[in-house]
Amino acid sequence: MTHEYIVWGCGHGQNATAILLLMVAMACMGVPVTAQVPSPSIPPESPSPPVTCNFANTSTISSNWCNYNEQSSTESLTLGCKSFLTNSSVPAPSTECCQGFNSIANKSTACICMATFYPPATHNMTRQLELPRLCGLKTDLCGQCPTFLVSRSNATASPYTADAPNSAGRSVASTVGAISLAVVFGLLLVGGIITMIIVFIKKRRAKKNPPGIFEAPPPGGAF
C-alpha cells in the first residue's frame, strides 16, 4: 500500500514537472521578446528671434532690392495686418496677416525689412516690430536688413509713397521734353547756318558778275 503510494506520487511528480516544463516552453515560444527602443526625441521648435533693433529715419531700403512694384505687392499681401497694427484692441495678428507676411519673406527679405522698419505712419511701431515674431518669421532681420540700407538722399524711391509712379512719369516727360527742345534748337541752328551760307554765295556771285549798264538808243533810231 505504502509502496504503491510512493510509486504513484513519483509518477505524478514527474508528470507535473513535465507539464510545467511544457508550459514554460510554450510560453517562451508564444510570447515574442521585443527590445524596447526609445522613441527619438523631437527637438522643440526654436522661437522666432525678437526684433530688438531699429534704424535711423535718414536711411531706407534701397529700391534696387525692393522696388516700387514689390512694395505695392507687400502692401497688398499685408492688408490683413492693418487691424492689428493700427488698433490696440486687436490682441494678435490674423492667420491671413501671417500668411501674407511669410509669403513676402519667402520672396524678398528686403521688402520684409521695408515693411518692418519703415511702415506707414499710421502703424504702431511697437506692434510692427513684434509682428515677425508673432507670425513665426525665422529670418534674423537685425542681422540681414542693414545690408539693404542706403541713405535717403541716395535712394531712388521713397518707401510706401503713392505718388512714386507720377514722379517717375514726370521725370520721363521732362527728359522727353528736353530732348525735343534740343532737337528743335539744333534744326533752327542748322537752318540759320544754311541761310547765311546761301546769302554769302549770292553776294559773291553778284560781285563777280556786275549787271551791264543799259544805254538808251539815240533819237531817230540807229540810222
From TrEMBL:
TM annotation in the entry: 176-201
Domain Bifunctional inhibitor/plant lipid transfer protein/seed storage helical: 75-145
Family annotation (InterPro entries): Bifun_inhib/LTP/seed_sf, Bifunc_inhib/LTP/seed_store, LTSS
One Pfam family named in its UniProt record: LTP_2
This protein's UniProt keywords: Disulfide bond, Glycoprotein, Membrane, Signal, Transmembrane, Transmembrane helix
Family: Belongs to the plant LTP family.
PANTHER family (UniProt xref): BIFUNCTIONAL INHIBITOR/LIPID-TRANSFER PROTEIN/SEED STORAGE 2S ALBUMIN SUPERFAMILY PROTEIN-RELATED
Stated name of the protein: Bifunctional inhibitor/plant lipid transfer protein/seed storage helical domain-containing protein
Annotated gene: LOC112283162
